Each structure stands twice: as C-alpha cells, then as structure tokens.
Amino acid sequence: MNTPAPIKLIDGKAAAARVIAEVKTQVAAMKNQGIAPALTVILVGQDPASQVYVRNKVLRAEECGIRSEEHRLPADTSEATLLALIGELNADASVHGILVQLPLPAHIDETRVLQAIDPLKDVDGFHAENVGGLSQGRDVLTPCTPAGCMRLLEDSMGDLSGKHAVVIGRSNIVGKPMAALLLKAHCTVTVVHSRSANLKELCRQADIVVAAVGRPRLVDADWLKPGAVVIDVGINRITEGERSRLVGDVDFDSALPKVAAITPVPGGVGPMTIAFLMKNTLTAARLQQEAPCPSIS
Ligand code: NDP
C-alpha cells in the first residue's frame, strides 16, 4: 500500500481565512464592550495598483466588522496637508488604525509621514518606535507581511527554536522585520542581500528560507537543502508567450520535490498580509484602551 505523500503546499488562503475568523470573533466581542475598531486608509495619487490594494483593505475590514474609511488625496497634495490629516486622525479617539498606502509621490518625505503616525495607531508597524520595539523583542505593532510569514511557519513547523533561517532581502517592510521576528522565535538568522557573497551556499544550509527579493524565480532547487521550508514573499509579473502571470522569487516547480513545505504565488503570503492588517487594527484598538490617558497640564 502506498503511503500518502505529506502535504507540502502551505495554503495561505486557508490560513488567512482562519486569521480573519479569529479577528471577526474578537471584533464582535469588542463591540459588545462598546468599542468599535476602526481603520483609516490614506491614498495619495492615482497609482492603479495602490488603488486596488486600498480597496481590498477596506473591503476586508468591512468583512471583519471593522469600521473603515478611505481618504483619497490628489497626487499634488502637499506634505503639510498630509501631515495635518494624520494629526487630526491621531487626535480622533474613534480611529484606531492609520495606514498610509506606499509609495507616496516623490515630493513627500515618506519617513516624516510614517513618523507622524501615532505609534499606537501604526497598523503597518513602520514607525521607528515600533521598529525599535520589535528589535528589542517586545510585543508591538509589527509589519503585516513578516507577521503573516511567521504564522505560516509556525503552523507548518511548530516550534522554530534552533532552526537556521536564511532571509533573502533586507528591506524595512519585509526582510529586516522578518529577521527580527525569527530571532524572537529563537532561530539562528542569516540575512542576505544583493551584495552578499556565496548566496546559494548560505541558502543551502537553511532549514527555513524566506525569499523577499522581487526577482522572478531567483531561488531554484539547487539553492535548497532537502526538507527545507520555503516562504516565498516575492510577487513578480512575468510574460510567457502571450500570457502574463504572477510568479514568486522561488522557482516553485523545481523546489517542490525537494522541500518539506512551500508557499505558492499567488495564494501564499499575499492573503496573510491583509489578514494581519486586520489583526493589527484589532491589536491597535486594544492597545489604545490599555494606554494611560494623556495627562492634562
Ligand atoms: P525591496 O526592493 O525593498 O528589497 C529587495 C531586497 O532584495 C533588497 O534587500 C535587495 O538587496 C535584495 N536583492 C535584490 N536583488 C537581489 C539578488 N539578486 N540577490 C540577493 N538579494 C537581492 O523589496 P520588498 O522587500 O519590498 O519586496 C520584496 C518582494 O516581496 C517583491 O517582489 C514585493 O512585490 C514582494 N512583497 C510581497 C508582499 C506580499 O504581501 N506578498 C508584501 C511586500 C512585498 P539590497 O538591499 O542590497 O538592494
């Protein structure tokens, strides 16, 4: 009798549906206590991809019972106007999460804008206070994509303690916070990037590979240790013949026979990112209830 092959595909859609179900239940419980979690998304300009992302975030929030609001500002909005809006939203106790959709137009300083968001409302986890808190191993609002990757890894492998993880990419939104989360989970972490030597050899030593590069199918079976678990964050649109399709940073077909588990693209990390935005909005609402009232001087 043939033994069934173990399930290798990490189903991000199913995992995200479980996170959304948890959030829905907790939002309902919070509403029973008189608190209605609310998310505000700000979009500056008409970038088509950003418009789709914002729409999806708002729709997913509504599905969770989270009150959501969009501010669509013209591309020539001044930095001062944007900062003033963020200031108003910071002061509005009925708004729990503030997300500024990136990228911003070139005339606006992204860092200054992200730093203007109240760290307790920073549902993207990009404020320096949250970045610092994460690197100290504290429980803070954490970037959604790496947080989603961690849930997929823990669902698939259980305790990650002592595993060697290689993170390919060192961006502020994925690579660096991913490395910090893996360290927090007691992994041995190697971060590699475009200037790293011996990339393939380093990857071959990894029990866990997280690819967040933006290079279609950079990582193939030859880069992977047998039995590794692979999280493919990359989203790359390629054209094959007359067809255009999305692929990850990992060559899925070559990697699949060799790995213990792998995320597909699409349907892997992507759905988790938005699910963790909902989770972060709920966490932000909780943190704001727990925060001491500002003193009146
Ligand atoms: P960035 O472009 O900000 O960072 C890419 C990183 O990859 C950099 O650190 C860069 O190195 C490194 N890199 C580039 N080329 C190579 C190479 N040949 N070898 C090794 N390292 C290399 O991208 P992001 O982190 O924002 O995103 C990465 C990918 O993840 C993209 O495809 C993006 O679309 C996707 N993404 C998916 C999300 C999801 O929800 N699924 C969410 C966010 C991103 P260096 O620092 O030296 O330049």
TrEMBL record:
GO cellular component, one term: cytosol
Family: Belongs to the tetrahydrofolate dehydrogenase/cyclohydrolase family.
GO molecular function list: methenyltetrahydrofolate cyclohydrolase activity; methylenetetrahydrofolate dehydrogenase (NADP+) activity
Recorded catalytic activity of this chain's protein: (6R)-5,10-methylene-5,6,7,8-tetrahydrofolate + NADP(+) = (6R)-5,10-methenyltetrahydrofolate + NADPH; (6R)-5,10-methenyltetrahydrofolate + H2O = (6R)-10-formyltetrahydrofolate + H(+)
Binding site for NADP(+): 169-171, 235
Metabolic or biological pathway: One-carbon metabolism; tetrahydrofolate interconversion
Pfam families attached to this UniProt entry: THF_DHG_CYH, THF_DHG_CYH_C
InterPro entries registered for this protein in UniProt: Aminoacid_DH-like_N_sf, NAD(P)-bd_dom_sf, THF_DH/CycHdrlase, THF_DH/CycHdrlase_cat_dom, THF_DH/CycHdrlase_CS, THF_DH/CycHdrlase_NAD-bd_dom
The keyword Hydrolase appears for this protein: yes
Name of protein: Bifunctional protein FolD
Domain Tetrahydrofolate dehydrogenase/cyclohydrolase catalytic: 10-124
Gene that specifies this protein: folD
